[in-house]
Write a structure and sequence with these properties.
This protein has 307 residues and is an alpha+beta fold. It is built from eight helices and 14 strands. A six-stranded mixed β-barrel has the order 1-2-3-13-4-5. Strands 8-7-6-10-9 form a five-stranded antiparallel sheet. A hairpin with a 2-residue loop joins strand 7 and strand 8. The chain starts with a strand and ends in a 23-residue tail after the last strand.
């Protein structure tokens, strides 16, 4: 099992956009529908969509553990409160896989898009796996002012973002002034290269075949602001299900030492039922498409004090 740095509960766009299971052939006769007919039809469509989504989820659970999907755990809080420390996820590895000549007609391949939650290999160290929300796509112009993200000149009203600390110019503005110090040498070089080569008139321009990702916990997230763009080939997939959520420390979940593994094992034996977040178990993880973003500015959301 791999660890993710940080990680919504909205259904992935490709699952909503597919035709619902059980669609019938349209009768050639013209039928006049009443408002009641329309409401019943809409409810039926939504029910079929829900069946299709869970059918895909069950198939991935039954048949895919490596090729189709993979299990990960969230050890840090960069995606709180959307994804919490201790959330155990299943990641759909087929979502962004290259479509073959035949497979593209059979499987729901797609390209990453705004609002998706993506799992990817950390650019400065591909042995690490991270999760962030996709904010910028190739060609997008990004800047942040007073904590508000502007994409292509338009402010994003993001209901999934949490600000748990007071305003800080080093965290809430980008690309200038930027940013808090970066400790890792390669991450710092990536950041410097990004700021030197991809900034124009106060905006960051996302290059071709690259993406810009940020954590929902904006004040406590190591993301593209600090280590650069996410190459397309680094993207593994997107999470679709929290299959279990357990309240534990970052150190214990990381399992980097023998003592932490032993401590976590004992903790599970003693507190499995009381520290399992049952309300999050078997919860679908969903992206947030642009079409659902509010039109009006939102108040600052401090999130939960102890998620």
């Amino acid at each position: 099992m791999f660890n993710l740095d940080g990680f919504s509960d909205r259904i992935p766009e490709w699952r909503r956009s597919r035709l619902p299971l059980g669609d019938t052939i349209v009768n050639r006769m013209r039928i006049l529908k009443t408002p009641l007919d329309t409401a019943v039809s809409e409810n039926s469509r939504q029910n079929r969509n829900a069946v299709a989504e869970w059918a895909i989820t069950i198939l991935l659970l039954l048949f895919g553990t490596t090729t189709l999907c993979q299990a990960f755990v969230i050890p840090t809080g960069s995606m709180e409160d959307t994804l919490r420390v201790g959330d155990h996820l299943l990641v759909d590895k087929l979502a962004y896989a290259p479509a073959g000549s035949i497979g593209k007609y059979l499987l729901p391949y797609e390209e990453p898009k705004h609002g998706d939650i993506i799992v990817f290999r950390y650019p400065p160290d591909i042995n690490q796996t991270l999760v962030k929300r996709l904010i910028g796509m190739p060609g997008d112009r990004i800047r942040i002012a007073n904590g508000v993200v502007y994409r292509n000149g338009k402010a994003l009203n993001e209901p999934y973002v949490y600000h748990k600390y007071a305003y800080n110019p080093a965290l809430d503005n980008f690309p200038w002034p930027c940013c808090r110090p970066v400790k890792e040498d390669l991450a710092r070089r990536n950041q410097e290269e990004m700021l030197n080569q991809n900034v124009s008139t106060g905006e960051l321009i996302v290059p071709e075949h690259h993406y810009f990702g940020m954590g929902d916990n904006r004040d406590n997230s190591s993301d593209s602001r600090y280590w650069g763009f996410i190459p397309r080939e680094n993207i593994i997939g997107k999470p679709f299900l929290i299959y279990w959520s357990y309240r534990a420390s970052t150190e214990d979940l990381s399992g980097e030492t023998a003592s932490s593994v032993l401590r976590h094992t004992i903790d599970l034996a003693e507190h499995f039922f009381t520290r399992t977040r049952w309300d999050r178990t078997f919860k679908l993880v969903r992206g947030f498409p642009d079409s659902e973003l509010p039109q009006e500015p939102l108040p600052v959301n401090p999130g939960l004090s102890n998620p």
